[in-house]
Design brief:
2 domains; two-stranded antiparallel sheet; Beta Polymerase, domain 2; 189 residues; alpha+beta; single chain; 5-stranded mixed β-sheet
Length: 189
Amino acid sequence: MIDLITEAHRFQALCLSLKWEFCFIGGLAVQHWGEPRLTRDVDVSVLTGFGPEEQFISTILDTYQPRLPDAKEFAENHRVLLVQTPTGVDFDISLAALPFEAEMIRRSRLVEYLPGIELRICSGEDLIVLKSFANRPQDWQDVNSIIERQGKDNLHWEYIVTSLSPLVEVKEDPQILQKLNNLRDTARE
């Protein structure tokens, strides 16, 4: 885990030096907001907008090794750049452009992970939106752990539902909201 945090901190330094807007999501954010668990990679969103993604991709590939032979093309088509650090830590870099993603990054905050090492992570509410939208078994376990650890009454549910609803409409999977409401309703006070 220390390797992940150290490599995330290095990537953060790169983003700051380039004045890129970003925040860490996924397992690193779960470490703070939910029940800590083993995570094998670093997930980060970098606000690229629509259009200049190629500049971001090229800059990152100048520093990190691609995990796919066609990593640049894959990133352009799927909006995720898959790279690896020289020490072998995998990074999944989301090329953020949606209004929700811009808001998530704006709402992010610094959290200390190791003495003297702070990482910019998304809010607990934004992590719930991301994890619910992903809609995989591990994601729902993470959502539940965030609700339990933060306390359901301490989360801004109106923001969560308002942010998640249009994403769920695009995905055409209204059961996501129902599943989230069930988790909220059955969570301890």
